[in-house]
Amino acid sequence: MIPENMDNLSPAVREFDDEYVEVEVSEAQPLLSSADTDAPKTTFSSFSFREWGILVMLALANLFSIVAYSCIAPFYPKEAKTKGLSDFEIGLTFGIFELVIFLGSPIAGKLGILQTCGGIGFSLGPFLGGMLYDLGGFRLPFYSLGMAMFCMAFLSRFLIPVDLDIKQEESKQSTGYIGLLRVPTIWIMLFALFNVAVSTSFINPAMAGHLESFHLSSTVVGLLFLVSGVCYSVTAPLNGLLVDRYKCHLIGMLFAPIAIIISLSLTGPSPFLPLQKSVPLVLVGQIIFGAGLSTLQIPVYRNGLDAAENAGYASGTVTYGLVSGLFEAVYSLGSFIGPIGGGLINQYYGFARTVTVISGFHLCFVVIFSVFYAYKKCRRKGVDNDV
């Protein structure tokens, strides 16, 4: 029987009750101090040794996976043609890789540093593949990259924890990919990225065949591929500085497609130009091509993020993942269509006419981009005048 009066309790029971009241915790009081919780790490200097290992392993895995795909560009088309494959079938071989990435990108998203390593791998792969092919024949590039990927998989078993306590950021204002596709600016940026992907993915399988008449070694062909990658890497930091500090988004996106059109027309050369195919023309074309790609691709991502935030998406890693995943999917779709569609046109009409068709896509973008932003500027002026 429970006594109604607390005074009737024994001294031992009253002492226990007093102790219980003293340790009672308010709902508003956190059970753990802020010192006991893991603060989010926003700089590389705060990474532990294990976290550095995970980052380096993931970056190298992404690098090697792209190198394994792009390394076959200098020698595979020639080997495939000796086996009776057409240009369309060769392009299909290159395109399947990107089709799988297209299907997985909206789910996975991508870290910026991993994307950078992927770009380096795409540029470095043809040179490494050509060099390994000259050293050890057809099988050596595949054996070498296979062993490198196996080493990365082995390291991941020990570096990546089984359970990662990842706190997802929630954005009440965002509505996922459907909301992004309702933003007109996003579509403009996706069209630009699609054109970039089609251009680069067609050049990879077709360039080696285009250069066959010069009787160059696979290493030299790989070096010609590397030229555009070096120019991309050199101009990318400068373009990033111009975009971040001086907000030169629109100027770069207007002139970069024109530079790509010039580069493709020289590499062909285009039937509209009174030029003969030569290695110096290809070299100059690849230099302009790499610089044009970086000038176009960097503002695309920045404009996409700004457009998403202006549409109500919260600034943070969730929005970055959505935009990056969508853009990576469209890039992979373009990389799937480029070698297949380009290979089909190349098979019947030749390399020069194919690059002219691709240049037409970039010209369409310049027209659409100019009209769209001229309309936005006029509309903004009209609103200011009304106010």
TrEMBL record:
Q: Where in the cell is it found?
A: Membrane
Topology with respect to the bilayer? Multi-pass membrane protein
Bilayer-spanning residue ranges: 52-76, 88-108, 140-160, 180-203, 215-236, 248-267, 279-301, 313-334, 354-375
Alphabetical UniProt keywords: Membrane, Transmembrane, Transmembrane helix, Transport
Q: Molecular function (GO) terms listed?
A: transmembrane transporter activity
> Which Pfam families does UniProt cross-reference here?
MFS_1 (PF07690)
PROSITE patterns with a match to the protein in the record: MFS
The residue ranges of the Major facilitator superfamily (MFS) profile domain are 185-387
Q: Which residues form the signal peptide?
A: none
Annotated Gene Ontology cellular component terms: membrane
Q: Which InterPro entries match?
A: MFS, MFS_dom, MFS_trans_sf, MFS_Vesicular_Transporter
Q: State whether keyword Transmembrane applies.
A: yes
What is this protein identified as?
Major facilitator superfamily (MFS) profile domain-containing protein
Q: Which organism is it from?
A: Cylicocyclus nassatus
